[in-house]
Amino acid sequence: MELTTPKPSIFRRISTALHNHPGLFLLLLLALPLGWMLLVYIGSLIGLLIQSFFYLDGFTGQVVRQFTLRTYGDLFTRPHMEIFGRTVAMAASVTVGAALMAFPLAYYTVRYTSRRLRAILYLLILLPLWSSYIIRVYSWKLILAKEGIVSWFVGQLGLTAVLDWVLRLPVIGGPSLSISSLGLFLVFLYIWLPYMILPIMASLERVSKSLGEASGDLGARPSTTFRYVTLPLAFPGVVAGSIFTFSLTLGDYIIPSVIGDSSPFIGMTVYSYQGTSGNIPLAAAFTVLPITIMAIYLLVARRLGAFEAL
Amino acid sequence: MTFAIEFNNVSRHFGEVRAVDDVSFTVRDGEFFTLLGPSGSGKTTCLRMIAGFEQPTAGRIVLYGRDVTTLPAYDREVNTVFQDYALFPHMTVGDNIGYGLMVRKVPKPERERQVAEMLKLVRLPGMERRKPSQLSGGQRQRVALARALINHPKVLLLDEPLGALDLKLRQQMQVELKAIQHEVGITFIFVTHDQEEALTMSDRIAVFDMGQIVQIGAPSDLYERPRTRFVAGFVGTSNILSGETAVTITGSAQPFSVRPEKIRLVDVATAVPAAHCAIEGQVQDVVYVGMHTRYTVALPSGEEMIVVQQNMDVTPQNGTAVRGKAVRLVWPRAANNVLEEAIG
User: Fold this and answer.
1) Which residues of A touch B72 (CB under 8 A)?
2) CATH number of the domain at B5-234, please?
3) Do the Cβ atoms of B90 and A233 come within 8 Å?
4) What is the ipTM of this complex?
C-alpha cells in the first residue's frame, strides 16, 4: 500500500513559511504599528521641529520657508516666558497634588482591600474617564461658581469668611473659585488624578508583601518601612504618574480657557497662534518647549534612579 | 527552666478555616526545632505567629518567659528567613544585611564591620556591593540568613528556606545551617514539608496535620515509633498492617506499622527464626534504585507490602529474577510499631 500525505492547505503552508522565517513573521507583526509610529508620529514631530525654524512674514502673512532663529527670538520674550512659567508652575503643582492624593488611595487599594472591593475601586477610579471630558470641565465651572455647591457648602459650614480670605490671596485667588487659579488647580487635579493613581497602584502591586514583613521583622516600625522599603520601590510608579499629569497639564488648552481668570497657558497660546493668527512657526516653537522640558524631566528622573527598581 | 518558646493552646482561625487549632508545645533554649507537615497543615501559620505577622485568635505565645502574644513584629527579638528570601531588591547585599542595624541607628563604620563579619560567616566575603539580582539562589539564601543573624535574635525562624534550591545545594545548605546554628548557638525554628530534611537537621520535630500537632519527638522517635498512621506514612515509608492480615501475623487485629528496610525477603522454604514475624506473598514489582532494591510484594489478602534490600549481593540481573516468584517476608517482632488507633 502506498502512503499518501494529503496536500497541505494554503493556511498550513503560510503557517509553516512564517514558522521557518521568524524575521518575516516579525516584520508582518510590526509593519502596521511601526509604520504608524514612523510616519505619523515621528514624522509630524520632525515636521513640527522644522516649522519652528521658519518665520511668519508680518507684511504678507505668509510663512517664509527659510532657516532662521527669528521665531525663537520671538518666543524668548517676556510675555511668552510668563505664559511658560505659569504653565510649568501649574503642571508642577498639579503633579505634586496628584501624587499626594493618589499615593494613600493606591496604597489602601493594593494593601487593604479584598479582591472584590479592589475591582470596585478600580472601576470607580476609571469611571470618570468614561464620560466626556468637556462635560466634566463645564460641570466643574458650575460646581465652583459663586452660587455653586462648593460656596453653598462652605456657607453651611459657616466658613464663608475663610473662603473669601483664600480668594483674596494674590496669584491663587480671584472673584470666585471658578475664576481663580486655585479653582483651575482643583479641576486639573480632578481630571488627571486617575493617571497618577493607576501607575502607583501598578508599582505597589509589584512590591511583595513579604518585603514589608521582612522590614518589620528586622525591627523597623511601619514609618521606617515606608521610608526605606515601600516608597523607594513604589517611586517608579510615582514618576510614571507624574509624567502623565505633568505633560497633560502642560499641553491642555481647554481647562484653562473654561476655568480660571483667562490668563493664557502654553496650550491656549499654541491654539491661538496656529488658528487665529496663522503663525504656525511660533506655534511650533511653543510646542518644542514642553517637549524639551519633558526630555529634561525624564533625564533627571533617570538620574534619581527612578527607573532602577523597575 | 525557661523555655525559648511556649505555645499555650494557640489557635488561629480564618473564618471557618482552623489553620491552627489549639496547639501547645515548648521549645528548649538552643534547640533546632522543626515544624513538619504537608502544605496547609498549619506549620507556617505557627511560625508567622511567633514572628508576629499573624495574631492568634486564642491562646498565648511566650518567648523566653515574656508574653509576646500581642507584641508587634518589630518589637520581638526574633528574626525570620523567608521562603522567597524577601531581599530588598533596591539595596546592595551590604545594605540588606545591615538593615536591622541601620534601623537601630548603629553607626555606619560599626555596621560595615559587622556586615563584613556576617558575610564571612555565610561564606560570601566581599559581596557587599552586589545587588540581590546578581546572586544565585543559594547566595541569596545565605544573604537572607546573614541579614537575620546580624541582629543576634533570641530565636531564628526559617520558613522553608531551602525549598527553592536544587537537591545538591539543599543538602550542602542543610549541613551549613547546622554548622552555623552550632556556631551562633541560638534557637532555630525550622518549617519544612520535607521529612528527610527534618530528620537530618532537627533535634526535635513537631509533626502537623490539619492544624494540630500529631506527634513531637526526636527524629529517631518519630521514625522508629510513629504514633499514628499519618506520621508512619508521612515520615518515611511504612507498611501499615491491620485487620485479618494483622491477626495472621501477630495474632491480634491491632494495627501496626513496619519499615520496609527491617524486612528480609527469603525463600518460602526458609524457616522463620524465633521472635520473628513472617508472611508469604508474591513479588509484584522490582525496582533497582542503585543503593538498594525495592520490592512490591502482594499478600494473599490482596494488600501490598514494600520491602527494601541493600544491594550487597544483588545485581540488576538477579534482583529482577525474583519477579512473580512466591517469597517469604521475615522481620524481627521488635520492628513492629503498634499504632494508637482503635481496632476497626
Assistant:
1) 216
2) 3.40.50.300
3) yes
4) 0.85
